[in-house]
Amino acid sequence: MSDTPTFEEERARLQELVLEKGTRTSKRFFNLDQAAYRDGALTARTKELLGLVASTVLRCDDCIHYHLNRTQELGFSHDEIREALDVALIVGGSITIPHVRRAYGVLEETEDRCGE
Amino acid sequence: MSDTPTFEEERARLQELVLEKGTRTSKRFFNLDQAAYRDGALTARTKELLGLVASTVLRCDDCIHYHLNRTQELGFSHDEIREALDVALIVGGSITIPHVRRAYGVLEETEDRCGE
Amino acid sequence: MSDTPTFEEERARLQELVLEKGTRTSKRFFNLDQAAYRDGALTARTKELLGLVASTVLRCDDCIHYHLNRTQELGFSHDEIREALDVALIVGGSITIPHVRRAYGVLEETEDRCGE
Amino acid sequence: MSDTPTFEEERARLQELVLEKGTRTSKRFFNLDQAAYRDGALTARTKELLGLVASTVLRCDDCIHYHLNRTQELGFSHDEIREALDVALIVGGSITIPHVRRAYGVLEETEDRCGE
Amino acid sequence: MSDTPTFEEERARLQELVLEKGTRTSKRFFNLDQAAYRDGALTARTKELLGLVASTVLRCDDCIHYHLNRTQELGFSHDEIREALDVALIVGGSITIPHVRRAYGVLEETEDRCGE
Amino acid sequence: MSDTPTFEEERARLQELVLEKGTRTSKRFFNLDQAAYRDGALTARTKELLGLVASTVLRCDDCIHYHLNRTQELGFSHDEIREALDVALIVGGSITIPHVRRAYGVLEETEDRCGE
Q: Which residues in chain F (10-69) have CB-CB distances under 8 A to chain B?
């Protein structure tokens, strides 16, 4: 995988590629994808945690990485994130372990700004 | 499917069947499954919502039904639950629609105790 | 499952339920879902067949049923549909067999308007 | 689901439908599907247990039911089958619980011919 | 992942490895896999597009890459391929985005022989 | 993927990371995961083969690699392992081929201690 070093850059390159070449459908989907995580009856913060767990049970490393960044930006501590990953681990089973493992690795590279 | 009328009863029957016939491994897993949703760094309430979204993207009607009951017991309004289902719908795509549809059906059968 | 007799009616009930209670996100997704199957560089006809195969490998009976109706309305013969199901069967493996079986059952209930 | 009462009959009806209407590809796949479970370096007996676990982690009730019948015909005891289901439960997580529950239900309807 | 540079070579190495070491079952499956994409009631061309969408919703980068090569060889334009990917994106949801992104990357490396 | 050279080391690093930072839930799950593969009504040997097939149909390269190592340690020959992979290939379809291919590659790097 090794998307860690350039993960944010690759994601930025995608956005540009889609803006340049993408269909109207794909652009509408990208907009809707962003809208679904905005404050509403639930906070953007809670929705981001939902996105992290959904990504983990569906076993998508890129998606997990993105939501790990976002949940930390929105102030979740490592302890809180690890408990969200626990729910994913129990729901999704041992087949999620390699992804949970890589998620722990990503967390280790980030200072826990909420103290621990 | 039609598990709606006796959903809670069937779930109760399972617990008894597992207590009677289940292996030690399955019993330990059932205990761990319950432990993962208890208050910790995240509240039990938040974890239940994570379970709902995980169940929806993995498209398990029985699991969705169970977490719909639990999230309502723990005080989430229909508006909040529908926004959680939105995240699942966007992450999981149109293939989740039949499950989201049945989830809306379950919600309609329940009074929204949080007002709406 | 037994969604066959009232499949179209239930789908209609959903549309109304979503129009009445659904979030803005879910309504936007439903609109986008319809837009993705319209004529473009590819015909609506071809896209419907793509939807059938996607639904079959992801093993969603309701989705398969819907796309079986649509592909027949758009003029695909039973022979053509069965070859599309073949691709799904080979890509998705024997785990798709119960769904392919139910798809054959749905086809049998429909006259092949393209002759056979 | 409720495929229990007529499960074997429906499966028989499928075989006839495929023999009558199926493509050459689907018939070749059905033959190959049967060949993969025959005695070889591994026994047919062991392969059937592999099929049961594969079906359980992929969460296909019809497939689980079929392999539960077959593994019992080939002499596995309920205790052995429950341990195979344990592996599926741990690998696949709590999302498999409704399927494991229904598998326990199927086992209960069958006398354990291997004693218990 | 980074299978892009040697993708075709690795695939060739596999065919040789399977021809040398593979079981009779695996060889029969490989033959059947090829047969399912040949001209019949549907053209080979259409079937290849079905394979692309099936591979995308099941999120298999190697499979997507293979079908991207094949669909272009069979004369689909980039516009047509992107609309097929749209169907996969809508059916499969945002979890397919990293794969759709890599598919766009593969397309960019290839001249659109159908003009654009 | 290229996890082959340091696969065992990375797995060891995970165990330490989980022992140091993991939640109680994750540690309990890891213990239970190991317990599920111990001798019981079925042998540890058979259970490991079940784990291999479950990992293959769920398409997790790390999990497949781990179970390939374990099944060989427990005395399964390459012929036996290839037949287990056949069951996974037939159940899971052509989408599993890239994973089966990499499994064959891992086998080739290992001497078949059971003779062939």
A: 23-25, 28-29, 32, 35-36, 40
